[in-house]
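Appendix B. Chain record.
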Amino acid sequence: MPKAKAKTKTKTKPTRAPSAGPRFELDRLDAVPALVGDHRDFLIVAGLAGTARDIAALTDDGRHTYAMAGAMGAATAMGLGLALARPDRRVLVITGDGELLMNVGSLATAAVLNPPNLSIVCVDNGYYGETGYQQSHTSLGVDLERIAAGSGIAATRTVETADQIEDASRLLREGNGTSFVLLRVKPTDPPAIRRIMDPAACRVRFRENLLGHP
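Structure tokens predicted for this chain:
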């Protein structure tokens, strides 16, 4: 009896190319100032480490800024409280991927309360810069913009290229609800600047500025 011919499996081609991974190409030294624009438009709460230094360099460690030091995960919640307390001022939270991952549930609370004067920027370099530059979840596939949108924040953007910055910068100022911008940058050093590390002194000067004291 003749042997039956073995069936050959036909390979099916994918209907579309696999999506490219995240792009960490922007230089934070250029991208953060370009995105924030005139920092005097905001009361600013910054996360610890890199973003604290980004903001200190941009504002000359200004009195309208309050930056974290060791309180990992607190920036979004603190900015949310400030936005609710001062609806007459625009509040900008600017923090890193590692800091935000420590309290990612704060995005859900911000979405539910949805103050129109709150904007959140996550400077995402894919690494935990404060603890030795281990890879963070975002370099392994976690998308914080999708988490923000899934939490209920309606106005979100991801910025990976310079031509996307202008639109995202407008969103920080013109949104009619809480907005979220994910700014992906290269894992390079933030600005080399010394800032005040005394949280009590920073709180006092921030409060005095908020109340209009010289």
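Further analysis of this model is presented in Appendix C.
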